[in-house]
Design a protein that fits this description.
Blueprint lengths: L3 E6 L5 E7 L4 E7 L8 H19 L4 E6 L9 H18 L6 E6 L1 H9 L10 H9 L6 H20 L10 H6 L3 H6 L4 H6 L2 H13 L6
Parallel strand pairs: 1-4, 4-5
Antiparallel strand pairs: 1-2, 2-3
């Protein structure tokens, strides 16, 4: 089991990070905004990734599990490529900073954490978004980026606890059970929503453990 979980909601202008401990308590939260003289290109990517690592080193002890937000494949425009570069840089930097098995890095689709925490995968980021999160978590966040980073960390922690047998599967809603398996993952495992409803708790834990220990570590 991990000692802390780091949620990352990456952005070119304000990357949010939230660190929670093994009990789920917030021990660090930050919005990383590049200085104006580093607002483009490789210099910006380098600054963001280095700052992410520095914040993790400052706030985390022991075994660490980090998770960044997966790509929004419906997005369009130039920023899609820039965000793809940032995601790749973060993945590579965190991969190289694994040490002696002290860091594992995951990628979670935006819909996964929304399903787990909010109960729906298509909750829109409108004026009521933060209020919905407050209602579910009891935490008032300064912006939706840091709220998302927190939900990513909470979702990963829950997945690890379930896989380790430290959280009851019986307590999960149907939406929460489905949240850990993207359409691509379900296809790989030969699952349908109907089959998902019928698998035993032990089979569910086994499938989730497979996701967590997979080399790519993507939900």
């Amino acid at each position: 089991m991990y000692d802390c979980y780091v949620g990352i909601d990456q952005s070119l202008t304000g990357t949010a990070m939230v660190v929670i401990d093994k009990n789920g308590e917030i021990v660090g939260m930050r919005l990383i905004a590049p200085p104006k003289n580093l607002n483009r290109g490789v210099q910006r990517l380098n600054w963001i990734t280095k700052t992410v690592i520095e914040f993790m080193d400052e706030k985390c002890d022991g075994c660490v599990a980090s998770v960044r937000e997966g790509y929004s494949y419906g997005s369009k425009g130039r920023s899609v490529f820039d965000l793809g570069e940032l995601g790749g840089c973060l993945d590579l930097m965190l991969f190289h900073n694994r040490g002696e098995g002290t860091l594992e890095h995951f990628v979670i689709p935006p819909s996964t954490m929304k399903k787990w925490v909010l109960g729906h995968g298509n909750v829109k980021k409108d004026t009521g978004y933060l209020m919905k999160i407050l209602a579910k978590t009891g935490i008032k966040f300064p912006d939706d980026n840091q709220a998302d980073a927190y939900m990513h960390a909470v979702t990963l922690r829950s997945a690890c606890l379930i896989a380790a047998g430290e959280m009851e599967v019986d307590d999960l809603t149907e939406t929460q059970r489905e949240s850990f398996f993207s359409g691509a993952r379900m296809k790989t495992e030969g699952l349908t929503k109907a089959k998902m409803k019928k698998i035993t708790n032990e089979e569910f834990r086994t499938l989730l453990s497979k996701v967590i220990t997979d080399d790519y570590k993507s939900f």
